[in-house]
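Ex. 9. Protein: Polyamine ABC transporter permease.
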Amino acid sequence: MALPPYASTVERIWFWAFRVLCGLVLLFLIIPVLVIVPLSFSSGSFLTYPLPGFSMRWYEEIFSAGPWLDALKNSLIVAPLATLLAMTFGTLAAVGLNRADFPGKGLIIALLISPMVVPLVIVAVGMYFFFARVGLLNSYAGLVLAHTVLGVPFVVITVNATLQGFDFNQIRAGASLGANPMRVFFTVVLPQILPGVVSGGLFAFATSFDEVVVALFIASPTERTLPIQMFSGIRENISPAIAAMATILILISTLLLLTMEMLRRRSERLKGEG
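Predicted structure tokens for Polyamine ABC transporter permease:
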């Protein structure tokens, strides 16, 4: 928003002071992240400034056979599966909850989004005892289901927001033309709510890929994910390999944010055209 030409002196001072303040806050948030990137190219064996030299050895270490590559593979197995399940269950829940009002609807919504509100340690302890009883402890299936539970609230919220402008008469129109509920959903509903579904899926993926507390309770050393490996590395042996992996995660997070912004703009454009 540009400063109007008729603005007073006080308004001009506040205009520039506000922007300087926002810039300082942005730097305060970004600089700690950017400091990690040069450390990943250090030739030394410790996280120190100034850098003793430039080297790609830490990237070679994390992508060579060993604990880092195994942890990355585990995360790339668990996160996509948990994301797909979260997108499926979250979308169905959001559509079902938006179609009709019924007693207990608010309670169901509260239960669905509770993993976002309840401290992760409490969620992890509850999952630990439950999974131990049903035999899902120390397994990929248990870890995927645990991360699915953590991802569903994001999908429910984003899809629910997308459905606020959806006309459910379209579903009745499709049914009156002879289409079964499955066909109506995939040809009428899903194309219109897809930006919300994908946005929620991106949040679910980021949550699973970055989650460490629940994974510490559920996973065994065989299912050690990347966040657990980084947590263990920081606690036991701080090396620039952690900075190298963190740099890669920063790039992934940036790509996810750009994708979400593109989807948001596409959703707004579709609403404007509608």
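Check your answer against this statement. The mean pLDDT is 83.
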